[in-house]
Amino acid sequence: MSDCLFCKIINGDIPSSKVYEDEHVYAFMDIMPLTKGHTLLIPKTHCQDLFEMPQDVAANLYKAAPKVANAIKQAFNPVGLNTVNNNGAAAGQTVFHYHLHLIPRYDETDGLHLQWNTKKFEMNELANFAQAIQENL
Ligand code: 5GP
Ligand code: ZN
Description:
Layout: H1 5-11, E1 18-21, E2 25-29, E3 39-43, H2 55-76, E4 80-84, E5 100-105, H3 123-134
Antiparallel strand pairs: 1-2, 2-3, 3-5, 4-5
Bound molecules: guanosine-5'-monophosphate and zinc ion.
The site of guanosine-5'-monophosphate (5GP) has 12 residues, from strand 2.
């Protein structure tokens, strides 16, 4: 897509620090990393988010994910790694070409703070939620 920042990066119109590239995906360093090694993995096919991603694009993206994650692990020896994908502005998405953040973790002060405020639902409510989703598969 001509006015998409990440399509321009794939095409080389905007410079990036490339990590990996194949026929289907491109991986590069996030310009404002949360931690050392914070990498973005993107499909070469433009799709805005997970909701509009075709299954074959998703398959090819996740085929490359372990390869890139393990290279980050070998390079920097993190103690863990979070994968994050924000879909929609309300979820924190700022660039509207799907991207999977690969964020190596070092310690609790390393820049990523995930606060999980869990809620309690009864088993029958969870079953109803599952059914609502199933009906839309
Ligand atoms: P989002 O907030 O959409 O999940 O993540 C977008 C990410 O893209 C951010 O982490 C941001 O730092 C990164 N980003 C934005 N513009 C550029 C750019 O021009 N080059 C690179 N390498 N990363 C970018
Ligand atoms: Zn794009």
